[in-house]
Predict the 3D structure of the following.
Amino acid sequence: MTSAPSAPRKPLLPLDDALAQLLAAVVPLTATELVSTFDADGRVLAADVVSSLQVPAFDNSSMDGYAVHAEDLLRGSHELRVTQRIAAGSVGEHLQAGTAARIFTGAPVPPGADAVVMQEDCTPIHDERHGQPETIRVNTTPLPGQYIRHAGEDVQRGDCVLPAGTRLGPAELGLAASIGMAHLEVVRKPRVALFSTGDELVMPGAVAPQDMPPGAIYNSNRFFLLNLLRRMGCEVADLGIVPDNRSATIAALQGAAADNDVILTSGGVSVGEEDHIKPAVQSLGTLDLWQIAIKPGKPFAHGRIGAAHFIGLPGNPVSSYVTFLLLVRPFLLRLQGVQDLAMKSMAVRADFDWPKADKRREFLRVCRNANGGLDLFNNQSSGVLTSAVWGDGVVDVPPGQPILYGQTVQYIPFSELLR
Ligand code: AMP
Ligand code: MG
């Protein structure tokens, strides 16, 4: 007796195709707001930031020392009378030939001077405290231009220092401040509704560990998803836990769709009877349920409910975490107008074997070791969150390719995916 042929399985979707489809569905937000530069960390610029001045604004000293005319020290005596003192924030006078100006870091180099000699290279000969004009001996032959930071060497007037679409971090905020920007025009925050599905979930604090009922687990996804969303510049409506039933799921989705750009859920996207996300979203809008060819990960859903995007992540914590980093993060950044979404990987040596390659592209949790190689976490299960804490990144393993000890692999640091 032969068994009936089973229906052909839908092929798994490669990650790059899933990401391309997801990004193709994004219409970037157009509303903007003006925020204090202090508060713009993590936000995305809505307009070019163009400098109306040059930085540095004037030639200034990069050392504590003496401003000199280099040529004076090429011939004759190396002794110079100190005729003026220029601290940062003050302005000197024209430097007369054969004299020096005491100068401090950041102070404008006076006209007539073309080099700074650091104080360590000078010996004071007379000292004002003894009633004589200060004189110094210069123990070096300065090169013209030395220890001078030139006007405009950082930014020229008219330069676009930060183009629209730039994701702002601390360095960008400092640069914006250096050209006088107290406020920045940024894309409004995406509004994201977050909920976890699962009757087994209990909130930490609601039940003490020793009192957990059989079968219950703490809701961990809610904690990392909420904070990942905040890091991505989103305003989060945290809707808590939705029980595993159709009507509760529909009610939660309907409420969330009304005033959010995105609804993000974790769990319930498989196709068991206790997975209510698919029918609930389909009853309110449209849904694509993908089986993505990645590990951890695999089930992932994208759809629409009214104007809102729906994104359903797998429930297993590491799958949820990794699919957020690989798919939701670029989605949310593109929604805010970021163009460059490439994840930068680097070639690093694997100090481990991975003989049993999976058919899916795999993201192994690893940690850089002191010898410049990568160590593998000993449990790569999609439920083991310890791997994401122990690890400082993932190795991007192509489908079906085992790794031999010492082989060079592509490593993506978590720092690259959490920015
Ligand atoms: P599901 O995708 O709903 O079938 O869930 C897959 C696995 O992930 C199950 O073992 C769930 O108990 C677990 N899980 C789902 N949601 C969460 C959550 N919010 N926190 C921790 N574990 C979860
Ligand atoms: Mg579930």
Q: What stands out?
A: Residues 165 and 337 are 5 Å apart (CA to CA). The pocket of magnesium ion (ligand 2) is lined by residues 197-198, 267-268, 274, 315 (CB under 6 Å).
